[in-house]
Amino acid sequence: MSIIVRIAPKEATATKIGSTGVLMAPHDDILFSEIPGKKGNLGEITLNRPKALNALTGDMCRRLHEQLLGWESDRTIKAVVIKGAGDRAFCAGGDIRTLYMNGKEHLQTAQKFFYDEYRMNAAIFHFKKPYIALLDGITMGGGAGVSVHGSHRVATEQLLFAMPETAIGFFPDVGAGYFLSRCKNNMGYYLGLTGDRIGAGDAKWLGLVNHVIPSEKQDALIEALASAPFSSEDHRQVTDIITEFSIELEPLLFNQKTLIESCFAAESVEAIVSRLEERNEEWSKTVLETLLSKSPTSLKVTYEHLTRASAMDFNAIMETEFNIALQFLKTPDFFEGIRAVIIDKDQSPKWQPMKLEEVTSERVASYFMKKAQLNMTTV
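Given the sequence above, the corresponding structure tokens read:
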């Protein structure tokens, strides 16, 4: 069995060697290494907070962004691979527990986190070289932001994908307006509003990932990518290499495709609720109960965002999401949702307001007022 050799990238200041043999920078929540290969090296990113399910901090977002810019201009790097440490998660999202602790007293800290995270998402979207994300295990929220925007999204059979933000009084962000609004059969509205969890088969069917491979083949795939003589412009050969490892899994949501498409094609959140009530069957009752447990404000803002985003380009969506996020930070539902779900775990958030009909169109419109710019051209 061959061994993958990793070296520290030129941009990093390596200070110690971890148990995996990877050279680490001083802050080892995120690791960068280079795997020597034919016609160029692979840049490798490891999200290294396994005890926190590899949740993203602001520092991790900034450093990933900086490293990508360096690798993009480095002619010795032919492609980039990103993965999560441990066997439970690729990335469970942003570190919202820390965001809660800091944000309530220091709003600018929370604002800076979203600024850095969204700029990183944009850097991934615009990255010209092959960017291969290995989605093995839990991939939620911010985890989608560091994977779905890349050129090659590779899930394993262990994938558990969700955009659960409406449960914490927020909205599907990190560029979700782009990929959810473009999902077939109104599935993006369904996933964004309910926060439902899906597996690799559904993610592949919806185009959120390009490939599914067995979890135990990840190292073999990385080795194959390193040893293959492709250039940084040759995305097709990367696709062909991944295809050799690919397997097919059944999309379970496909069985509810007609119901979801019908119910979530409604012209408002209230109309979606009405259609679910009219169905009066086990599936629709479960979805209705889930939907009505979410923040009413989050539901209406999410619906409006996905509707608008379907006709917007990526950069415009990211700037819109930045402004929406800033508005959520000024309102009570976001911090109340984190308290109820993450901090106290009583699962009983007190939303303000509590009812859908109390969320006026004027209130929703206030989330889409442009008050800040998101600079996506420089670090």
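Residues 185 and 261 are 5 Å apart (CA to CA). Try to locate this feature in the token string yourself.
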